[in-house]
Specification:
The structure holds 2 protein chains of 2 kinds.
Chain A lengths: L3 E10 L2 E11 L4 E5 L6 H9 L6 E6 L2 E2 L10 E4 L11 H11 L4 H15 L14 H14 L4 E5 L7 H18 L2 E6 L2 H7 L2 E6 L2 E6 L1 H6 L4 H6 L6 E8 L2 E3 L4 E4 L8 E6 L4 E5 L5 E11 L4 E7 L4 E6 L10 E6 L5 E4 L5 E2 L2
Parallel strand pairs in A: 3-8, 3-9, 6-7, 7-8
Antiparallel strand pairs in A: 1-2, 1-4, 4-5, 9-10, 11-12, 11-14, 12-13, 13-16, 14-20, 15-19, 16-17, 16-19, 17-18, 20-21
Helix pairs in contact in A: 2-3, 2-4, 3-4
Chain B lengths: L7 H31 L2 E4 L2 E5 L3 H8 L3 H35 L5 H13 L2 H11 L6 H8 L13 H16 L1 H12 L3 H10 L3 H29 L3 H7 L12 H10 L9 H27 L6
Antiparallel strand pairs in B: 1-2
Classes of the chains: A alpha+beta, B mainly alpha.
Bound molecules: adenosine-5'-diphosphate (ADP) and magnesium ion (MG).
Amino acid sequence: MAQLLLRGIKKRFKTTEVLHGIDLEIGDREFVVFVGPSGCGKSTLLRLIAGLDPISDGQFFLNGKLMNDVAPSRRGIAMVFQSYALYPHMDVYENMAFGARLMGLDKAEVERRIAEAVRMLRLGELLKRRPRELSGGQRQRVAIGRALVRKPDVFLLDEPLSNLDAALRSDVRLEIARLHREIGGTMIYVTHDQVEAMTLADKIVVMNEGRIEQVGSPRALYETPANTFVGTFIGSPRMSLVTVTREGTRLGIADGGSLPIDTKLDARALKLGMRPDAVSLHRGQGGEGFHAQVVYTEYLGDNAYVYVRLADGTLLSARTAPNDDFAPDERVSVTLAPGTAHFFSAEDGRRLVP
Amino acid sequence: MPKLRMTGRGLWITVLVVPPLAFVALFIVYPILSAFAYAFFDWQGLRRLDFIGLENFHTVLFVEPYRSWTLNAFRNNVIVFFALMVLQNGLGFILAYALWRELPGARFHRVAVFLPVVLSTIIVAYLFKLFYHPLFGVVNISLRSIGLGWLAQPWLGQSSTALWSLIIAQAWHMVGFPTLVFLAGMQRIPGEILDAVRMETESEWVKITKIVWPLVAPSATIVFTLLFVGAFNWFELPYIMAGLDGSPFGSTDVLGLYFYRTAFGNVSAGQQDFGLGSALAVLIFIFIAAIATVITLRLRAREIQL
Ligand SMILES: Nc1ncnc2c1ncn2[C@@H]1O[C@H](COP(=O)(O)OP(=O)(O)O)[C@@H](O)[C@H]1O
Ligand SMILES: [Mg+2]
């Protein structure tokens, strides 16, 4: 059982405020991912939840109990650190047993829990090794094991994949997803990588500059981003944004062509968001669509992304078939599949419902 | 044929290495070796007589009154060593921990703790001699002014307190050194490891004994070794504060003073015996070298890669 409630959480270091009022609810057994560019305050928020840093303002409730002044070790929360933070002078077994013993568990129970963690994480042959004799991926598993044996209500993981090489990352990602299913605790996972966030999360919390931009399922964030920040942050390659003016039923770029798009919006200026997979490129100009010039092509095997520059200088990406060869500098027209346009306010970037 | 021609770099290295090597050979190796040799001769003052084998060693170790003097001085050194281990290294560790945890005023105290270390021993010794003065000393005056006048006593003048008074002066003087070394060791511990411990316990005791101490232990090797060498070579401070005789009644006598008295004589009592002095010096040297080696090897073995 673990329900977290954050109300108006602020964090100041001396005089600089780095979190400006975070409101968030996290349900039992949820896998929540905090995602955002680095420096946006994800780790800070995680440390406040863990109790490692004091909350400057606001309240944090865990299962209805106010946690602001509760010591980290008494919150029922375990954390997996970015550097793993294993105790260098203890072997793997001791690393896991240390916290469990401090909880006052008897010897048999400690043994039992370690055995379970060893089974889940396949640590068997490593038990007698010191951390420095382990590879990055093994250390990672030990760090997770150390959290597991405490059977916490909440697991916190701060960028757990960032110190692993690319090949290991997807393995460990799957592993973490499996663990979450198996142990069923609430997990809060921090990353700056939106792909990790999309693949793991039940619920994504997108953060930027100490504020939450949007909270929602991966699908909700992808399909209905609340603002241009979320729109461009979620999805790869990024959503392209272009400022357009509406004239009747057409959206146009100054001297750059136009598209017929039906909207009930009455603003004259809009930001139009287009995902690469909704964009089509057509050779030549003069027909329907925005005018553009090919910049370069990213060939990925099963498909290719073509980057083109619109008349106002915006760079836009389009997914194309891998055998559609577009040459650099080639003139093309850009069209958009019906119903895929995202509209944002030209003033504050907020999503507008068409 | 391999070239033995000096390159510019080789020349530099030679120029830089030869003088200190010569210095070491002349002022360290040669005296040690000659002391070694002197110890096997009979001496009359500074005049060398016959080769007498191990006679001098036998005398200082087994013949009265040398035997009791040696034992007494050695016992005092042992007390000094263990007392300083607690008062200097133990306190140093606690101070380092407090400084490291950034308790209020840490920045000021970091300097304050180390300041006495840079003072000359002479200054510290005279300062504490004044502090301990039975009538005008700060210690007794403070005791009297807070109504504990019955505790005031001639600290350096009675056997029961003299050695401990010196030990406290020494600990005050040097406590900054282990503090600094331990603090440096603590600052090498990654912050996330401490955070990890804090997630598991809030007990400072567990943190210190199970995590901080084991991780700082490597820096303890050097601190322990130096303390050991320092404690058994102790000379300046007792010499200035208590005099060459280890007064009162030999209660502050240590091997350093005893050796000096034996080899070079005393202002009051003129007898001097270079042979016995050298034998003592050799024994002290061998003892320190042997134990220091053991300490270093033993402690090294448990050093940890962070
Ligand atoms: N101990 C600290 N003192 C001062 N500023 C800090 C401290 N820790 C973090 N910050 C600042 O808070 C902001 C958020 O940092 P952090 O939470 O680490 O970002 P993220 O984990 O999202 O990359 C950054 O601007 C960082 O400089
Ligand atoms: Mg971070």
